[in-house]
From TrEMBL:
Residues 37-322 form the Histone deacetylase domain. CDD domains: HDAC_classII_1. The keyword Hydrolase applies. This is Class II histone deacetylase.
Length: 372
């Protein structure tokens, strides 16, 4: 497999300001490092350089998205707001979506990274791509930013792929620990895009990501939410990919797969309560590669979303890229002992959550209907 890797130094210059975890400092909250911090992503690059895998990847420079491309999803009024904040004092573009000075241009480049990734796989330059996009995008809705996300990179990339390449079936998998609400809204009435969000139940945003939310009108059944209980680890996640996502893909037969790759379901993330290991992310990636090989010639694009453990995100991301590229480095997970004592099994409450999703989706997908 030939794997592309996309990033730009500018991604690390998007400034969220100071805060304490994700809140602004003040009162009893001392200034600290805002949780969506460039260090997490910069250290991904550092680790890949240090172990040598970076030299084995096809490094691809991103272009900036045009305003017309951003407006494939976002309203012109919202784009104006982001640009104004970026050009003047900075500020919040919605709900915890901080725009710093110059963030507008960086956000255009982040979305452009996703578009460049799509072009790279569709034109056969590479088989698959990992794009270290920042700022992230999956929470951003048409008219506002949410949860560190300014422009919805993956949603725009899917709309771009349909428009430019005439694709009829695109599958989007969002494994970020938080529900991909913005991407859900982008395709809630669209039968040409199958959106699957695997997330921690009732984490963020509020009142979002319920299994019962399946889409509307002709889009019914093409929105699949898989809310897992806190404490779900490798076994539960891999079961989701094998029991739900693979059968869905086999029936849907995607022509392109996009993944919102948030490494915040990891066992050390400050904004999640899941227990996925670096090895677990590799296993999830392997299933998705098998699906991509079977249905769309391996055309797989991953865009970085969340992941807030400066120490662990690099190792989780490296495992993903090793799986994508087929290149095994000599890097061992130094935090693997942190999962010692976690039984590698699917607990009953986790299986119940998975079965509940299958039961709901059985109304729309033959693969889940009981054969008598």
């Amino acid at each position: 497999m030939k794997t592309g890797y996309i990033y730009d130094e500018s991604y690390f210059w998007h400034d969220n300001g100071s805060g304490t975890l994700y809140l602004p400092s003040g009162g009893y909250l001392e200034p600290d490092v805002f949780v969506e911090h460039p260090l997490t992503k910069r250290r991904v690059n550092n680790l890949m350089e240090r172990c040598g895998i970076m030299r084995e990847l096809e490094q691809i420079r991103p272009r900036s998205a045009t305003r017309e491309e951003i407006e494939l999803f976002h309203t012109s009024e919202y784009v104006d707001k982001v640009k104004h904040l970026s050009d003047t004092t900075g500020g919040d573009a919605g709900d915890h979506a901080i725009v710093g000075r110059g963030s507008y241009e960086i956000a255009l480049l982040s979305t452009g990274g996703a578009l460049t990734a799509v072009d790279s796989v569709m034109k056969g330059r590479v088989d698959n791509v990992y794009a270290l996009t920042r700022p992230p995008g999956h929470h951003a809705e048409a008219d506002r930013g949410i949860g560190f996300c300014i422009f919805n990179n993956v949603a725009i990339a899917a709309k771009y792929a349909r428009k430019k390449y005439g694709l009829e079936r695109i599958m989007i998998i969002d494994w970020d620990v938080h529900h991909g609400n913005g991407t859900e809204k982008a395709f809630y009435n669209d039968p040409n895009v199958l959106f699957v969000s695997v997330h921690q139940d009732l984490n963020f945003p509020n009142n979002s990501g319920y299994a019962k939310d399946v889409g509307e009108n002709v889009g019914k059944g093409f929105n699949v939410n898989i809310p897992l209980p806190p404490g779900s680890g490798d076994a539960a996640y891999v079961s989701v990919f094998k029991e739900v996502i693979r059968p869905l893909a086999d029936e849907f037969k995607p022509e392109l797969i996009l993944i919102s790759a948030g490494q915040d379901p990891s066992m050390f993330d400050p904004l999640g309560r899941m227990l996925v290991s670096a090895k677990g992310f590799g296993k999830m990636t392997k299933v998705m590669m098998e699906i991509a090989e079977k249905h769309c010639g391996g055309k797989l694009v991953m865009c970085h979303e969340g992941g807030y453990s400066n120490s662990y995100v690099p190792f989780c991301t490296l495992r993903i890229i090793e799986e994508l590229s087929g290149i095994e480095t000599d890097v061992e997970d130094p935090f693997a002992t942190g999962s010692n004592g976690y039984p590698d099994l699917v607990y009953s409450n986790q299986q119940e959550a998975i079965d509940h999703v299958i039961d709901i989706q059985s109304e729309y997908w033959e693969t889940f209907q009981v054969k008598v």
